Amino acid sequence: MSTYVVLMKLTEQGAKMIKEAPARVDAAVKNLEAMGGKMTAFYLTTGEYDYISIGEAPNDQVMLTFLLGLGTTGTVRTTTLRAFSKDELATAVKKLP
């Protein structure tokens, strides 16, 4: 599975509905699992981003579909990073000329 780091900022609507945030996170976890993915970590953060999650999905299309659905809630805006493990780095470096 591929790994993704999702950086999230609350929208105005998300901030107004902050008391519902734990239930929204639980629903998002279930949605990702239903698509064959898994959330491995979730954090409320201080600074530029309000939340950070780390998740896995079988491919980019699954993660894209999940993120599009997350965006339709209107509560967060996302920036997503595809993350590569140390082993993936080693494999890529071995292929360099």
What's the SSE blueprint?
Layout: E1 2-10, H1 12-16, H2 21-34, E2 38-44, E3 51-57, H3 60-71, E4 76-83, H4 86-94
Antiparallel strand pairs: 1-3, 1-4, 2-3
What does this structure look like?
With 97 residues, the protein is an alpha+beta fold. It has a single domain (2-94), classed as 2-Layer Sandwich (Alpha-Beta Plaits), CATH 3.30.70. Helix content is 41%, strand content 32%. The protein has four helices and four strands; from the N terminus they run βααββαβα. It has a four-stranded antiparallel β-sheet with strand order 2-3-1-4. The radius of gyration is 15 Å and the shape is elongated.
Read across the widest sheet, the strand sequence of neighbours is 2-3-1-4
H-E order: EHHEEHEH
The CATH architecture designation is 2-Layer Sandwich
How far apart, in Å, are the first and last alpha carbons? 27 Å
* Number of separate structural domains: 1
Helix content: 40-55%
- Could you tell me the CATH topology label: Alpha-Beta Plaits
Which structural class matches the secondary elements?
alpha+beta
Assembly state (oligomeric) = single chain
Output the number of helix runs. 4
Work out the number of β strands.
4
Radius of gyration from the CA trace? 15 Å
Principal-axis shape equals elongated
- The name of the CATH superfamily reads Lrp/AsnC effector binding domain/regulation of amino acid metabolism (RAM) domain
Instruction: Profile the largest sheet.
Output: 4 strands, antiparallel
CATH class: Alpha Beta
